[in-house]
Amino acid sequence: MAENENGQDKTEEPTEKKRQDARKEGQIARSKELNTLVVTMAGAIGLLVEGDSIARMMSYLMTSNFTITREALMDEGSMARMLLSSGKHALVVMLPFLLVMTVAAVIGPISLGGWLFAAKSLAPKFSRMNPLSGIKRMFSTTALIELVKSFAKFLIVLIVALVVLSKERNDLVSIAHEPLEQAIIHSLLVVGWSTLWMACGLLLIAAVDVPFQIYEAHKKLLMTKQEIRDEHKNSDGNPQVKQRIRQLQYDMSQRRMMESVPEADVIITNPTHFAVALKYDPEKGGAPMLVAKGVDFVALKIREIGAHHQILILESPGLARSIYYSTDLDQEIPAGLYLAVAQVLAYVYQIRQFHAGGGKRPDPLGDITIPPDLRRDE
Q1: pLDDT tens digit sequence for 246-257
Q2: pLDDT digits (tens, 9 = 90+) for 213-224
Q3: HEC assignment per residue over the chain
Q4: pTM recorded for the entire structure
């Protein structure tokens, strides 16, 4: 079971953030044996496919470059021209093989772990220059496994090479009696098939190494319970800081709400525990809007501000509770309360007319009916 530096067991699966951070640092599964297999296999197939063309090109170059006329010997620029011509001819013939090897060199590393360019992995790590750390790595379990893999690879390649050479013994002997061009073609075919069989032998090493590298990479990413808690804490933010931010946001919203109270048309109270302030703009044509609400101390503050700005304060416990629980700030009241609030606003307008000297004082507002689905008890 893996442990961290504090001796705690790493038993938890890595989080997505842990995986992303590890990938940014280049800590992903890679298999050198898989890379070797892909490149070797591609080289062997390339030789088998392009061997004939490569052999003929080599034969042509040797024949043309070792057959020099007297005029060419006397010409100072002939050597450069021959070198340039030979290079172009070799490049044209070798280009398909080189492309195959280039593609294999790219596919090999990205076939396990995908494409990744991590700048952090290029940065020098002075900890690797510590001799004690180097000795510790030399005698670690990973180093032992690498030694076993290297020895197994050597044995497999050696056995495959001996078997192939023993079977190709007659062909190797016959090459000495063949014409030059045919001998080159034959030699490349033998090398191609031998390399292909050795690459097949490397399949055994890669088949073991790939799952092992995936397992090792996953084991390094395992986390302790404390690491997960710390990561969540860092991701979500410090609880004290978050609480302070929420408190500041609440204070700001309360100040904005209190600044809206003087704009209200009426304040409806419980009379002591609840207070809601409503505003109605006939020109906009919408429903009355809740501009402030609160309980206990906040309700008292709303009543004080309302009284200071001469806002009419009405006592209607059922309606105050209903509006408080059913309506958010700066939102219109629900349709079920239209009739009840309309009675309140009508009374408010009558009171305003009375104070403006427009008739007798209206009768006190009677009981207001609240729909059962919006009724809230204490």
Answers
A1: 777 777 877 887
A2: 888 888 888 888
A3: CCECCCCCECCECCCHHHHHHHHHCCCCCCCHHHHHHHHHHHHHHHHHHHHHHHHHHHHHHHHHHHCCCHHHHHCCCHHHHHHHHHHHHHHHHHHHHHHHHHHHHHHHHHCCCCCCCCHHHHCCCHHHHCHHHHHHHHCCHHHHHHHHHHHHHHHHHHHHHHHHHHHCHHHHHHHCCCCHHHHHHHHHHHHHHHHHHHHHHHHHHHHHHHHHHHHHHHHHHCECHHHHHHHHHHHHCCHHHHHHHHHHHHHHHHHHHHHHHHHCCEEEECCCCEEEEEECCCCCCCCCEEEEEEECHHHHHHHHHHHHCCCEEEECHHHHHHHHHHCCCCCECCHHHHHHHHHHHHHHHHHHHHHCCCCCCCCCCCCCCCCHHHCCCC
A4: 0.47
